[in-house]
Amino acid sequence: MIIGTCFFVSLISYRKKVVYYIMEQQIKMILPNELLTETLRLKNEGYRLVAITCTNKNGLELSYSFDKEYNFLNLRFVTDTKTEIDSISNIYSYAFLYENEIKELFGVHIVNIVIDFNNNLYKIPVKTPFNMKKEEE
Amino acid sequence: MGNRTVIPFGPQHPVLPEPIHLDLMLEDERVVEAIPRIGYIHRGLEKLVEKKDFQQYTYVAERICGICSFMHGMGYCMTIESIMDIKIPERAEFLRTIWAELSRMHSHLLWLGLSADAFGFESLHMHTWRLREQVLDIFEETTGGRVIFSVCEIGGVRKDISPETLDKIDRILTDMEKELKEITHVFLSDSSVKYRTKGIGVLSKQAAFDLGAVGPMAKASGIKRDLRTQGYAAYGKLKFEPIIETDGDSYARTSVRIKEVFQAVDLIKQAIAIIPEGGINVKVTGNPNGEYFTRVEQPRGSAMYYVKASGSKFLDRFRVRTPTFANVPALLETLKGCSLADVPILILTIDPCISCTER
Amino acid sequence: MAILSMSKTLFKSLVHGPYTVLYPVKKKETYERTRGRVEINISQCIYCGLCQRRCPTGAIQVNRGNTTWSIDRLKCIQCNYCNEVCPKKCLRMNNEYTSPSFGSVRDDYTNARVSGDKENN
């Protein structure tokens, strides 16, 4: 289930006192079809959704960031514009804005969004402006 | 059941400095549902990161928003510094903290003024902004810019504040505190102001949690969460407690912001008292390679920055999750059940920053 | 509950007089660090083009061939980056702001020195 868990711990040490500011970078690789189960598990553990980030580099890489108190972790998987991705807006109702944004700007095929703007969230003249390089190739 | 009407609110409206559109579904005078529509000022700043190199992008990051400009610059620089494993001098961290807290003061005073304007108290609006002007003057004197400072750079800060100027800031803040008390007293105790804010737009603690509210919106509903306690920049060396209120109405949100202004004054004074000597920046060589998530507490709530770089001068991806983006669902919740006359003040209550939201 | 809680402040400002400056007649003082507009000491410029390459908005154009340096005033965001990267330190941030205008303003600076004329160089 867990393909890999990466920990990048950055330690910024202060001059004399040994006080560290640690921002843990936990990234958990999952498969696209595990998204709903993983999200539901996190929701039951009391995590809140922080953001959904899409990166267009070697495929569309989706990172779902969650936090609980000050604990911060990410679920990540790589997809393309054709694969259907289930919306998590049934679990986290406020995910609809992020999902609409990603759907519109990157062309990720997210289905079943609770409030679907049908690619009309932003008033932009071009289709999927953040994912144009791929179409040209 | 009364008559159902749909009233379009915005994108141009006297209380809105920036365009957001809401379709308000009304039942007589009560709002039953609100559907947001953003996207009038989408600028594609996240895409611009592929065209400007990572040093130049500092100036773009600052321009994501005019009010939390410094914090955006700082968040971006902190992220790149974490990727490149740069440790900035301690003095730079303190200077960043001082500017960040001054920004918080200026943002909250701006909001207080705007909210006074929204409920029709013009002279209160003017007097709040008169106080804000002093903060802007401090900015101009120390950084050279009144709103956009361009003072944060990767590896530290670009300008130092001399000890005399720090003393002067301390003096200005001491005087200002008295005047602030006088003005904020009006917000907290005047009966006409309270009539417009008390019990309006209540957001319960559970709702705030479930809808992902951040910043003063969450703090006013009793969620004690302030990323500054995690000790980024110099916050680890300053003493403070996150401010919370439990009522969750507009009054509580006003109160949280007012208390945060005083807290900011206190934090700046603490920082001025213990600011160490030393350099203000380190030289940056090479290009970033890696990825990092940073979170900082902005005046409006927590913001998240994500940078992915692959060793070239240009970054692969820069992502910012701004607080207003997270607060929109909470706003829609507070709008339900309020009367049409309260809609403007409720929209202001989340301190909307639409340019931030759409980037 | 309080009423007339604002009156103290209002009376104070009655005595104090206006807090604002009568703008076109009197101008607000600028500070030493105020970033107004970029100026160049053209005789020291070596036309390396570093400022042009580093400018985040592409406001600066340097032409080595006919020794001109020009800046689009409305594109410039006064970030002071050009000033910092300039190897000859011939750029300077002036405290005065660019005056308002209707169209785009491009200020050209041309070096008047004649090549071979040692006296004036």
Keywords:
heterotrimer; B: 359 residues; alpha+beta; Cytochrome-c3 Hydrogenase, chain B; 3-stranded antiparallel beta sheet; 14% strand; C: 121 residues; Alpha-Beta Plaits; two-stranded antiparallel sheet; 17% helix; disordered C terminus
Characterize the structure shown.
The complex is a heterotrimer of chains A (about 140), B (about 350) and C (about 120). With about 140 residues, chain A is of the alpha/beta class. Chain A contains three helices and seven strands; from the N terminus they run ββαββββαβα. In chain A, the strands form two sheets. Chain A has a five-stranded mixed sheet. A two-stranded parallel sheet of chain A has the order 6-7. With about 350 residues, chain B is of the alpha+beta class. Helix content of chain B is about 50%, strand content about 15%. Chain B has helices at about 45-50, 55-60, 70-85, 90-120, 120-145, 165-190, 190-195, 205-210, 215-220, 250-275, 325-335, 345-350, 355-359; strands spanning about 5-10, 20-25, 30-35, 150-155, 155, 290-300, 300-310, 315-320. In chain B, helix 5 (about 120-145) packs antiparallel against helix 6 (about 165-190) and helix 6 (about 165-190) runs antiparallel to helix 10. The longest helix of chain B has 29 residues, at about 90-120. Helix content of chain C is about 15%, strand content about 20%. The termini of chain C are far apart. Classes of the chains: A alpha/beta (about 140), B alpha+beta (about 350), C alpha+beta (about 120).
- Give the percentage of residues in beta strands of chain C: 15-25%
Tell me the radius of gyration of chain A.
Answer: 17 Å
Strand content of chain A: 35-45%
Poorly predicted regions of chain A are 1-22
Strand order of the largest sheet of chain C: 2-3-5
- Work out the helicity level of chain C: 10-25%
**Count of beta strands of chain C:** 5
Helix/sheet category of chain C: alpha+beta
Going by helix content, strand content and strand pairing, the class of chain A is alpha/beta
Shape of chain A: globular
Summarize model confidence as the mean pLDDT of chain A. Answer: 72
SSE arrangement of chain A, N to C:
EEHEEEEHEH
CATH architecture label of the domain at 30-96 in chain C = 2-Layer Sandwich
Q: How many domains of chain A, as an integer?
A: 1
Arithmetic mean pLDDT of chain C? 80
Strand order of the biggest β-sheet of chain A? 1-2-5-4-3
Characterize the quaternary organization of these chains: heterotrimer
End-to-end CA span of chain A: 34 Å
- If you compute it from the alpha carbons, what radius of gyration of chain C comes out, rounded to the nearest whole angstrom? 22 Å
| CATH first level of chain A | Alpha Beta
